[in-house]
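User: Could you walk me through two proteins back to back? I'd like the raw sequence and the structure tokens for each, with a short line separating them so I can tell where one ends and the next begins.

Assistant: Of course. Protein one, sequence then structure:
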Amino acid sequence: MKQNVLSTTLRRFVLYIIIIVSLFSIIIYYQTWFGILNNQSLTAKNIYPLVKSELEQRKILLYSNLTSSAFNAQTYLFDYIDKLAVMSNKMIWIIDEEGMIVSHAPRLESLINILEKKQANYTYYLPEDTGYRKIFDSDSTYIKNSKIFKRMLGEEDLIGRSYIFVDSYSTSRTDPEQMTRIAICISTYKQQEKEAFISNIHLLVFPILLISALSVLLVAAFAKSVSGPLNDFLNAARSVSQGNLKVRAKYTDDRTELGELSKTFNSMMERLENTEQQRAEFTSNVAHELRTPMTSIGGFVEGILDGTIPQEKHKTYLKRVSDEIKRLTNMVRDLLVLTKLDADDEASLVKNRFDINDMIRKSIMRFEEEITFKKLFINVNFHSELTYVYANSDDIERVLINLIHNAVKFTNDGGNITITVEPKRDKVYISIRDNGIGIEQEDLENIWTRFYKSDKARGRDGTGTGLGLPIVFSVIKRHKEMIDVKSKKGIGTEFIFTLENAEQTDNS
């Protein structure tokens, strides 16, 4: 089933946004909550010194045996912490290690029933089962975020977190050593915690939702802008997989990466199409080039066998058969060479140091018989007696043989062939020039094409395979060197190619 790239891309982006928003929301949730707790803790720490200072003034009277003095001290203390409780919207409790409620504010009637009152006076005490002694059993003088009042008083909807400060106070006029541990508990209403938390969350919910909606819209627009070209590429790739090499990408905006991708894709398809055309032409040419000599061989042999060719001409026609067989052999050999050159990459190229002058001399000697027969003049211009280059000697020898053979073959009797070797910095320039028949200008751009031969060249001696110059081009290209050709009809042809200067490289 064909799937649209837009739907897939959009789903993925939306999933990413959901994940990011969820993580962001979790971070905000905990950051808000801990911010509230830190604010509560800071408020409690600011209130505590004020309560402690007032308690220091009243502590002895609070524990006086005189009921009226203790009652008055408690009243004054209550008035003070009641004002603090109203101003800060907090619950403030002061209890000692015996469970006595020294003071508390605000005075909620719903809590009175929980507290125990001693018969002797009007002082209230916490019941033992409230577990208040755990406060004083702790070694810490500051208990942060405590929930002890929830457990003590059971008012889950009323009492929030408590911040408890425990100190020892001298509570006797006659015995300064008599110390009483007293805890100042500053608590937050639970409902207040909820309201503060919800208020902070509400402040952030709208921006989060707005950002999420905008992100989805932007992602949808972005995904659509990206998916359009991607769908084109996908459809083009499907067409290519079905054998259509003429398909091209339509997205042409060079300012984006997709434009560069489209440009590269189209360039690749052009090369593939050209390669396929060359392959088809190559196959057709191979079939044609093989069929022609084989047809000739078959006709000559049948003519000899059925008596069509007279006895006295058998030798002549057998010589033609032999020539055609040699031509087939040369063609197969050149095809194998080209196949090897195409298969080998540049990394497998093995270079060695050798004298190009000596190789040129040996290459000329291979055509001594043809040169003598056509009375050709060979002019060799060497810059020095020895000229060393770095290259694959076997490949370069094949280049020289092909170029010299062409020069000898296409130069008229009594003509001139000039070979020049000239080092220039890090390169050695080799030139092979003749004053032969030349090449038509419209044929120059095709001479490197496999099996390409102009009509006159084809009829020159019938021995050419059309693979010599393509081999030369492949070898030079594999060496990452330059080759050029200059020719004028009736004046001659010159091939120039370069090789790496070994002397310059050694000096470097």
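----
Protein two, same layout:
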Amino acid sequence: MKSLKTITILLVIVGLSFVIYQTVSKKKSSLSTNALSDFAVKDTASIDIIKLSDTKGNKLIFQRNESKKWTLSDGSCVQQHLIVGFLEAFKYISVKSPVGENAVDNINKLILTTHKKVEIYQKGQLVKTWYIGNPTQDHYGTYMLLSDPEKGKSPEPFIMHLPNMYGVVADRFSTDRKEYLCSEIFTYNPKDIKEIELTIPEQPELNFKIVQNNEEFIVYNNTKPIEFDTLKVRKYLLGYKKIHFTNYNRTLPQPSVDSLRNSTPMYIIKVIDNNNNVNKIKAYKKGVDYQLYDLEGRLLVYDQDNLWVFTNDDKLTKCQYYVFDKLFRDINYFRK
């Protein structure tokens, strides 16, 4: 009798355990069935529109034009290598691990509150939407949610990563427009330069102008032609092949920008190409951002590495002397 009672209790326990197991399994199975984890887009060559937005109201649209170059929707030039970074992420993104069942609801709420939204189009059709949340605590993964035009939004987020690539996914998808704009100031083939004029406002006696006609040169000191070293002129023109700024102004408030614009520049450079297009810049000294001292212990007033440059379209940019020094010559450099 006691043995029968024990068997009955065991059967009841086994039965309850089976019911609980089935319930949990069905719940997990249902969640896994509806969850979308296929974030990758292998055919990146057919991607022609990428839309970025965030919960702060920032929006950007990138599109591939007929020549296969990427631009912003308003036609603005963008740095192509940054879009290549997008495409690499689309192709190689993979699941690092699922989110623990107990954390799913909390992570979903966090993603809903703060995220970057990436909409991916192929041949004009929306194919996938990523919701990129915060990185994991160890920064080796990123919480992400996938939405599909046909299947809808996934009920379950995943921890995603880019194999063999350092950094969290969200870092690749800045919603700051300035981050993407082209950084070229001068990108000339020397043969395409018709004229270069450099003015030094505080030392006008050192001004020069180079005029080129079919690789024949004339060099002027203000309006007076001089005898010059042809090799130095050729070398100087080569300096205009690749001149870029570091980034757009992020520190000076508008009143300070206006004040700088109205002050006397260090250098003014005007380049005219063979189509008579004019590209004119103004270069200014840049104050230090914090206290710095020279090798003799004197407090520095101006940044020794960086300067301000107003571009041809009057945008203020931060540049490096390392890049520009080869352009900042005076008439004495060219004399025989």
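The CA atoms of residues 52 and 60 lie 5 Å apart.

Let me know if you want the two compared in more detail.
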